[in-house]
Each structure stands twice: as structure tokens, then as C-alpha cells.
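Appendix B. Extra example for self-study. Work through it before the problem class; the solution is given directly after the inputs so you can check yourself.
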Amino acid sequence: MITIDKKTDVPAPRGAEDSGGSLLEVRDLHVEFHTRDGVAKAVNGVNYSVNAGETLAVLGESGSGKSVTAQAIMGILDMPPGRIPKGEILFRGEDMLKMSYEERRNIRGRKIAMIFQDALSSLNPVLSVGYQLGEMFRVHEGMSKKQAKAKSIELMDKVKIPAAAARVNDYPHQFSGGMRQRIMIAMALALEPDLIIADEPTTALDVTVQAQVMDLLADLQREYNMGLILITHDLGVVADVADKIAVMYAGRIVEQSPIHELYKRPAHPYTRGLLDSIPRLDQKGQELFAIKGLPPNLLHVPAGCAFNPRCPKAQDVCRTDFPALVPVTEQDGTELPGRRSACHFWKETIHG
Amino acid sequence: MGRYVARRLLQMIPVFIGSTLLVFSMMYALPGDPVRALAGEQAVDPVQIAAMKKELGLDLPLWHQYLNYLTGLFQGDFGTQIATQRPVAEEIARAFPITIRLALFAFVFTTVVGIAMGVFAGLKADMLRDRTLLLITLLLISVPSFVLGFLAQVFFAHQLGWVDPNVSPEAAWDELVLPAVVLGSLSLAYVARLTRTSVAENLRADYMRTAVAKGLPRRRIIGVHLLRNSMIPVVTFLGTDIGTLMGGAVVTEGIFNVQGVGNAVFQALRHREGSTVVGIVTLIVIVYLVASLLVDLLYAVLDPRIRYA
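Solution. C-alpha cells for the complete assembly:
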């Protein structure tokens, strides 16, 4: 069993010790929010795992529970109103939900770091970026202000911010959107964590900058051999970066798959709908495809399969029986490794 | 920055002239005059009064009197009190330090206690302690300060006997505690509420989530990341508050018999001593202007997004 040594200043070399299990494993995680109107079940039994050096893309619409899952892993859920009634989040085999506040604080930032969507509001407006970057070293490694500043400049260089030394004392509002997101990435990277959770890191950026930021993130991940959870609603972003993908809908994973197979042969009508929604150059001039309807209200998730009101293939069974996440096989019965689908008609969807 | 300060200082000139003119005309418009007030109930020969007025320049038209006053002022002469024949400058030099001490005392009390209360409540918005704070501050805001002053006097001085109901002419620090608390209580309520709202709002900010995700200790998250942002609106209020406290001192000084500016203005008003009133009010205006300039500069230190050019 691997234990977390709070005194280690330098992250242990990766890859060697985690041969036994995954870097991070989420098991049957449930998250609910107690609101005035009732209990909103944001996450209903999510399972996924990430290994060192691996990238897991978590895909889903707003309200699908992808960010809430990430926040639960990070320990930054607002509790209350949030509550985790059930589930485990194992980091290197230890359940983080059972740890004390201080134990978790020592993991946050040092072992697991997070990149947020909107860098402008996620960076403190009244503190210089050098201060905010340096804080990681000062708090976690007890460095002096001067050392921390030198490290901050190094980090800013690492994420390719031009004239880092001159800009270290600037404030977030003085940077462009892409540069701010680089600063967020630098902050997450500061202590070379084992796992980075990127919550829609490119959503607030324009398309050319999106590509740059994604490339940077992918490069750095390779360099440090980190695990990466990439949360997004944009299938276009993840294709080149991710190793495997989990599609979420109404707080559940509806399909899991290695990345390229999912694009080739989706095994869930929702995934198919998402893929069909990507605008394609060869269909210029035609009406864009959209999945009809809206994501369900989490206070009143439909009975049976949560997707049934919007599903083109819905049958009676979909409205009554809840589909489990089952392994997906070839037509001859050979199992497709890593593939799972939560649809009564996955066979028809993938092979039909 | 330098240019900004220079511009702000230049802007004080029209404000200065405007406020002196305003107060001066108001004194002129008041019924009664200082010479008659001098005589009290006695019947005095109108010829004698007219002669005295002529000697003091009070028979001149308003604009001329004002001009004379300003000319004197620019030569460093605040004028002379008619009743006591003492220079107004002397009266100001005696009264001002006491009021400044009182106002500063109240200001420190307001700032320290108000912010502490606000943070305490704001961190747990809508919980019991937050509701309690809202109730207390509501009470402080709705009770006029003279009522609060008399109540405090009756309770602490007459019933408990902890303090003397009247402050001695020297106005030592310990004597000023009760007046300062009464004087600062209204501002205290505002500061506490402002801080409370600001803290509660900033707690939900994205950068607070980032700070937690960075694994910072709680004390640092609140002390550095939250407070720095939450203080911005509070500082703005505190800046204008210094002037308000000096003005509010008139009532408080009356209750506790503090021999400060408020008392001096009150006496001067009763005797229609125009030059004394104008002199003191002008100084208060200047204190107000300088304080708000300082706050605006401090604002830029707190919030780097603000730049003065």
C-alpha cells in the first residue's frame, strides 16, 4: 500500500510505484446538492480511473456532472449545499474522502492540481501573477520571497510567456486571455503534480489560441508524465490529446471508450448525437445537426434512461428500465477492451 | 500619479471658495447679529450699535464682507471673535486637536471593530451570527446618535459610575472612550455591513476556489486572498467617513460636553460669530477633501486595476 508522505518536498518519481493500481480511481461517486427546491443529484455513481501519463477526457453538456466530479476530486465542492453521500476517490490507493482537511490540503496543489476555465476570474485580480505563482513555492516548500519569484519566472518561461522576467510583477488583467490561461497552467504545474485536472481549459479562448494552449498542455503532460483529466464539451478539442474518453449525461457515465474507437463507432445514441453535432466542412450549406431538447433538470431526472426523452431510438424499455454500464463487444462476442455503454440498444447503435 | 495629485489639489481651490462663500452667506442670512447678541436683553442705543457695526465692517454689503474675510484669511488671519475679542485662530488651535483626537479615536474604533464584525459575520453568511450582526447594525443605524449618547451617558456614567458624564476641558484619551464609541457607532454599523456583504460575495468568487485548489492554508486564503479584495469598498467608505465623524462630533460633543470644534461652532452660532463658524467649517471641509484624496490614492494601492494619470 502506498502512503502519502507529507514531508516529501519533491514529487516522487512517477511510473515506478503505481504499477499496482491507477493513479486516481473514482468509485461509485455520488454528489448531491441540497437546494430549496429539493435535492439535485448532480453525480450518480461515476466510476473512472486515470494512470500516470494518461489523459482521460470527460465529455458532457453543461449540468452533466463533469465539473462537479472534478471538484469532488479536488475537494473544492461547496459543502453545504453539496454532499457526497456515497463513493470513494482513491488517490494512489488511498480514499481521499476519508482524509482530514490538512491531509487533503497537502495533496491539493502539490499532488493534484487544477486548471480552471475562466482564467481572468480564477486568478486573484489584486495580486501580481508572480505573487500568485510564487505562493505555491512559499506555502508548500517554504521558499523565501526571492527564491519564489525566481521560480515563478522560470515557470512563466516554461509555459512560453514572452519576457517573463519583466512581466512577473504584472497583474492578471494586464495579460491577454491566452497568456492568462498559460499562467493558470503554470500555477498548476508549479510543484510538478502527479495529476492535473483541466476543467474546460480552452473554452474561454479563441480557436487559434485554443490549439496553442492544448498543445502546450499536452507537451507538458508528456514531459512530466502526469495523469490528466480533461473536462470539455468540445469533441474537437480532445481527439488529438486524450487516450480515453468518458461521456457523461445527467450525472452518469453513459459511454467509456479509447478515444479513436469512440469517433469511429459510438455505442450510445447520445455520443452519436454529439459526434453528428460537429460541423463538417464537406457538409457546408446544410443545416447543422443538433440533439433535440434540453439536458434534464437534476431535480427530476426522467425514469429509466435519463436520455430517453431526447433519444431518437427510445423504446418503451428506455422509459422504465435503467440501463447499466455494460461492456461492449464485437458482433462475435469478443470483448472490446475499455469500452462500455449504458444503453439498452448498444448493439444496434454500434453495429447497426 | 503626480499629475493626478496636483489636479486633485487644484480642484480643492474652487471647493474651498464655494464652501466658504456658502457658509458665509448663510451666516449673513441668519436673523440677528453679533453686536446685538453682545448686548443680550439690554436695550442699547441704535446709534451705538450702528457705530460698532461700522467699526467691525458689518455694515458693508455681503460681497465686500466676504472679500474682506478672504483677504484676511490669505494673510493668515482668521478674524477676531467679537464677544471675547480673542483671535479665531486661537479658538481653532484650542478646539481642533480635541475633535481630531475624538474623531480619530472613533475612526479607529469603527475600522477595527467594524471590519472584525463584518468578516466574522460574512464568513458564515445567513447563519445565526450573521443575523445577529444585521440586527445589531440595524438598531445602531436607526437610533439617532443623540439618543444613543444620552443612553450611554445615563447607563455608564450615572448608573454604573464607570465614567464621568462630562469630559474635562483637557479631554484625556480615557475620557474620550465613551464619546468616541457613541460617535463611531453609526459608521461602525455601515462598515460592518459593508464588510460583511463584500466578504460574503467574494467568498463565492472563482479566485477563492483557485486559492483552495492551490492547497493554501485557510488563514492565508482568508487573510490574503479574501480580505484584500473585500476591503476595496470598505476603504472607500472609510475615506468619506473621517469627514462625517468630524461633522458628527458636534452632537456628540454637546452631549458629553467635550470642548472641541463642535462645541465651538455651536457657541459661535449662538453668538452669530460668522468668522468663527466659517473658519471651522472650512477646516473641516479641507480635512474631508484631504482624507478623500488619500483614500483615492490608497484605492489604487489596493486595486491594481485602477490607474491614475
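Self-check: The first strand of chain A starts at residue 24 and ends at 35. If your reasoning did not lead you there, revisit section 3.
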